[in-house]
Amino acid sequence: MAARQIVLDTETTGLDAKNGDRVVEIGCIELLNRRVGERGFHRYLNPERDIEEGAAKVHGLTLEFLSDKPRFAEVAAEFLDYIAGAELIIHNADFDVGFLDAELKRARLGRLKSHVSGVVDTLAMARELHPGKRNSLDALCERYAIDNAHRTLHGAQLDARLLADVYLAMTRGQESLVIELDTPAEAAAAVARVDNSKLKIVKASKEEEAAHQAYLDTLDKAAAKAGGSLWRKLQGT
Q1: Are residues 161 and 55 in the same domain?
Q2: 51 and 63 Cβ atoms separated by less than 8 Å
Q3: 151: pLDDT confidence band, cut at 50, 70 and 90?
Q4: 3-state helix, strand and coil shares in percent for the chain, rounded to the nearest 5
Q5: pLDDT digit string (tens) for 14-54?
Q6: Catalytic residue among 59, 91, 115, 154
Q7: Rounded distance, CA 81 to CA 89, Å?
Q8: Same domain for 13 and 60?
Q9: Among 119, 127, 191, 236, which has the minimal tally of Cβ within 10 Å of its Cβ?
């Protein structure tokens, strides 16, 4: 069974969690077997402090709007229950993880990574796949033909949904160990990075094997004049 993944984004009062900036919005999108799940998580939060002008211009949230929203500590248990054991997918993960660690520390709930199975930084992924190119969320949406025309302001839930599409686009083809990249050299480098020792082998069930043999029987009939199907000839059956 594939690991549950959560695409996560936050909006904040400013850029420096260590100097008291706070989270004002959390948005999460669930991925199950590379499909968007039905369970999302979205909360606006009362930061209990002013919002810097630069941050407000980015996300459009005001203290007046957030004044009646819950504080982080009031939604922390629900948030941790939602992400528990999942792999988090975050763009520029150090930023969001730093802010959430600060919020969790205030609530005496440990660190974010102690509640999840791991964190994937899509910015680091993008820089490896597309070195020397712009790798902002907007740039990646453009590169992978993902419609972000409605993104006039940043928003945690909106950005998490866009990032989910970007992540799926960036990782498509990994099932066959081939990633669609800009040049053949990049593709070859990506294949060379695959660690075969970590690949999981899934054996066919008895029902799947029976269905496969039934399909080969059909091929044998269709290829009777040629002495049967090539597949069975190669198998020596």
Answers
A1: yes
A2: yes
A3: confident
A4: 50, 15, 40
A5: 999 999 999 999 999 999 999 999 899 999 999 999 999 99
A6: 154
A7: 17
A8: yes
A9: 236
Total domains in the fold of the chain = 2
Higher local confidence (pLDDT), 57 or 229: 57
By residue count, the chain amounts to 237
- Whole-number Å distance between alpha carbons of 155 and 27: 8
Q: Structure tokens of 90?
A: 């975050």
Please tell me whether residues 61 and 132 are part of one structural domain.
yes
| 212 and 166 fall within a common domain | no
> Is residue 185 one of the residues assigned to a domain?
no
Amino acid letter, 182: D
Q: Which of 46, 43, 42 is nearest to 68 (CA)?
A: 46
Catalytic residue status for 154? yes
Any domain includes 127: yes
Tell me the residue range of the domain where 142 lies: 5-171
Is residue 178 assigned to a domain?
Answer: no
Tell me if 224 is assigned to some domain: yes
